[in-house]
Amino acid sequence: MAIQRTFSIIKPDATRRNLTGAINAKIEAAGLRIVAQKRIHMTPAQAGQFYAVHKERPFYGELCEFMASAPVVVQVLEGENAIAKYREVMGATDPAAADAGTIRKEFALSKGENSVHGSDAPETAAEEIAYFFAGIELVG
Ligand code: RTP
Ligand code: MG
Fold first, then answer.
1. What is 3-137's CATH topology?
2. Which residues are listed for ATP binding in this entry (predicted)?
3. CA gyration radius, the chain
Protein backbone atom coordinates (compact mmCIF):
# COMPACT_ATOMS: atom_id res chain seq x y z
CA MET A 1 0.00 0.00 0.00
CA ALA A 2 1.31 3.42 -0.96
CA ILE A 3 1.79 6.39 1.34
CA GLN A 4 -1.50 8.28 1.59
CA ARG A 5 -2.76 11.50 3.14
CA THR A 6 -5.98 11.93 5.05
CA PHE A 7 -7.75 14.88 6.60
CA SER A 8 -8.59 15.01 10.33
CA ILE A 9 -10.51 17.36 12.61
CA ILE A 10 -10.19 17.38 16.39
CA LYS A 11 -13.75 18.49 17.16
CA PRO A 12 -15.02 21.11 19.68
CA ASP A 13 -15.89 18.60 22.42
CA ALA A 14 -12.23 17.54 22.44
CA THR A 15 -10.56 20.97 22.17
CA ARG A 16 -12.81 22.19 25.03
CA ARG A 17 -11.47 19.41 27.26
CA ASN A 18 -7.80 20.01 26.27
CA LEU A 19 -7.57 16.62 24.56
CA THR A 20 -5.58 17.76 21.49
CA GLY A 21 -2.30 16.36 22.85
CA ALA A 22 -3.81 13.05 23.97
CA ILE A 23 -5.45 12.56 20.56
CA ASN A 24 -2.24 13.50 18.73
CA ALA A 25 -0.36 10.94 20.83
CA LYS A 26 -2.72 8.20 19.59
CA ILE A 27 -2.35 9.39 16.00
CA GLU A 28 1.45 9.34 16.19
CA ALA A 29 1.54 6.01 18.04
CA ALA A 30 -0.37 4.50 15.11
CA GLY A 31 2.46 5.53 12.78
CA LEU A 32 0.66 8.50 11.21
CA ARG A 33 2.70 11.68 10.75
CA ILE A 34 0.99 15.06 11.32
CA VAL A 35 2.21 16.94 8.22
CA ALA A 36 -0.01 20.01 8.73
CA GLN A 37 -2.03 21.30 11.67
CA LYS A 38 -3.82 24.50 12.68
CA ARG A 39 -6.43 25.68 15.17
CA ILE A 40 -9.40 27.49 13.64
CA HIS A 41 -12.90 28.52 14.72
CA MET A 42 -15.40 27.80 11.94
CA THR A 43 -18.56 29.78 11.30
CA PRO A 44 -21.77 27.70 11.04
CA ALA A 45 -21.73 28.42 7.27
CA GLN A 46 -18.18 27.05 6.91
CA ALA A 47 -19.13 23.93 8.91
CA GLY A 48 -22.25 23.60 6.74
CA GLN A 49 -20.20 23.66 3.57
CA PHE A 50 -17.76 21.11 4.97
CA TYR A 51 -20.57 18.71 5.95
CA ALA A 52 -22.79 19.52 2.89
CA VAL A 53 -22.96 15.79 2.08
CA HIS A 54 -25.16 15.40 5.21
CA LYS A 55 -27.50 18.31 4.32
CA GLU A 56 -30.61 16.10 4.18
CA ARG A 57 -29.87 14.22 7.42
CA PRO A 58 -31.91 15.11 10.53
CA PHE A 59 -28.79 15.89 12.56
CA TYR A 60 -27.33 18.38 10.02
CA GLY A 61 -28.34 21.61 11.81
CA GLU A 62 -27.15 20.35 15.18
CA LEU A 63 -23.89 19.11 13.62
CA CYS A 64 -23.10 22.49 12.01
CA GLU A 65 -23.89 24.34 15.24
CA PHE A 66 -21.68 21.95 17.23
CA MET A 67 -18.74 22.23 14.78
CA ALA A 68 -18.90 26.05 15.08
CA SER A 69 -19.35 26.06 18.88
CA ALA A 70 -15.64 26.20 19.76
CA PRO A 71 -12.23 26.02 18.03
CA VAL A 72 -11.23 22.88 16.19
CA VAL A 73 -7.82 21.57 15.12
CA VAL A 74 -7.63 20.67 11.44
CA GLN A 75 -4.84 18.32 10.39
CA VAL A 76 -3.34 16.42 7.49
CA LEU A 77 -2.05 12.96 8.41
CA GLU A 78 0.34 10.95 6.27
CA GLY A 79 1.34 7.29 6.30
CA GLU A 80 0.83 3.81 4.86
CA ASN A 81 -2.87 3.32 4.13
CA ALA A 82 -3.56 6.51 6.11
CA ILE A 83 -7.30 6.83 5.31
CA ALA A 84 -8.33 3.38 6.54
CA LYS A 85 -5.74 3.38 9.32
CA TYR A 86 -7.03 6.64 10.79
CA ARG A 87 -10.65 5.39 10.60
CA GLU A 88 -9.47 2.41 12.68
CA VAL A 89 -7.70 4.64 15.22
CA MET A 90 -10.87 6.82 15.47
CA GLY A 91 -13.28 3.95 16.08
CA ALA A 92 -17.00 3.75 15.23
CA THR A 93 -19.08 6.94 14.91
CA ASP A 94 -21.02 6.03 18.08
CA PRO A 95 -18.56 5.64 20.99
CA ALA A 96 -20.80 2.95 22.49
CA ALA A 97 -19.99 0.81 19.44
CA ALA A 98 -16.29 1.74 19.19
CA ASP A 99 -13.51 -0.77 19.92
CA ALA A 100 -11.39 -0.48 23.06
CA GLY A 101 -8.34 1.74 22.65
CA THR A 102 -9.84 3.88 19.88
CA ILE A 103 -10.05 7.68 20.17
CA ARG A 104 -13.85 7.69 20.21
CA LYS A 105 -14.09 4.89 22.79
CA GLU A 106 -11.76 6.75 25.11
CA PHE A 107 -12.82 10.36 24.56
CA ALA A 108 -16.11 10.80 22.66
CA LEU A 109 -19.15 12.04 24.58
CA SER A 110 -21.88 10.85 22.20
CA LYS A 111 -22.60 9.92 18.57
CA GLY A 112 -22.69 13.64 17.68
CA GLU A 113 -19.92 14.95 19.97
CA ASN A 114 -17.48 12.27 18.96
CA SER A 115 -14.12 14.07 19.20
CA VAL A 116 -12.69 13.50 15.71
CA HIS A 117 -13.43 13.46 12.00
CA GLY A 118 -11.48 11.49 9.39
CA SER A 119 -11.90 11.33 5.60
CA ASP A 120 -13.62 8.22 4.27
CA ALA A 121 -12.05 7.89 0.76
CA PRO A 122 -9.17 9.24 -1.36
CA GLU A 123 -11.46 11.68 -3.24
CA THR A 124 -12.97 13.16 -0.06
CA ALA A 125 -9.52 13.34 1.57
CA ALA A 126 -8.19 15.42 -1.35
CA GLU A 127 -11.25 17.71 -1.30
CA GLU A 128 -11.20 18.20 2.46
CA ILE A 129 -7.44 18.92 2.55
CA ALA A 130 -7.85 21.51 -0.23
CA TYR A 131 -10.77 23.15 1.63
CA PHE A 132 -8.61 23.94 4.69
CA PHE A 133 -4.97 23.99 3.56
CA ALA A 134 -2.80 25.57 0.86
CA GLY A 135 -0.18 23.27 -0.65
CA ILE A 136 2.65 25.28 0.96
CA GLU A 137 1.29 24.38 4.43
CA LEU A 138 1.77 20.61 3.92
CA VAL A 139 5.19 19.68 5.18
CA GLY A 140 5.90 16.01 4.69
P1 RTP B 1 -16.93 11.97 10.43
O2 RTP B 1 -17.48 12.21 9.03
O3 RTP B 1 -17.11 13.17 11.34
O4 RTP B 1 -15.53 11.45 10.40
O5 RTP B 1 -17.78 10.81 11.14
P6 RTP B 1 -18.27 9.43 10.54
O7 RTP B 1 -17.82 9.29 9.11
O8 RTP B 1 -17.93 8.36 11.51
O9 RTP B 1 -19.86 9.64 10.58
P10 RTP B 1 -20.84 10.30 9.49
O11 RTP B 1 -21.96 9.35 9.26
O12 RTP B 1 -20.06 10.82 8.32
O13 RTP B 1 -21.45 11.53 10.31
C14 RTP B 1 -20.76 12.74 10.40
C15 RTP B 1 -20.84 13.28 11.81
O16 RTP B 1 -22.19 13.68 12.09
C17 RTP B 1 -22.45 13.48 13.47
N18 RTP B 1 -23.57 12.55 13.62
N19 RTP B 1 -24.54 12.73 14.50
N20 RTP B 1 -26.82 12.43 16.11
C21 RTP B 1 -26.58 11.52 15.17
O22 RTP B 1 -27.28 10.56 14.98
C23 RTP B 1 -25.37 11.69 14.37
N24 RTP B 1 -24.96 10.88 13.42
C25 RTP B 1 -23.81 11.43 12.94
C26 RTP B 1 -21.20 12.92 14.11
O27 RTP B 1 -20.44 14.01 14.62
C28 RTP B 1 -20.52 12.28 12.92
O29 RTP B 1 -19.15 12.13 13.16
MG1 MG C 1 -18.06 10.79 7.61
1. Alpha-Beta Plaits (3.30.70)
2. 11, 59, 87, 93, 104, 114
3. 14
Known catalytic residue: 117?
Answer: yes
ipTM of the complex: 0.95
Annotated binding residues for ATP, as ranges? 11, 59, 87, 93, 104, 114
pTM: 0.97
Whole-Å CA distances, 65 to 12, 46, 79, 90: 10, 10, 32, 22
CA atoms within 13 A on the CB side of 86: 32
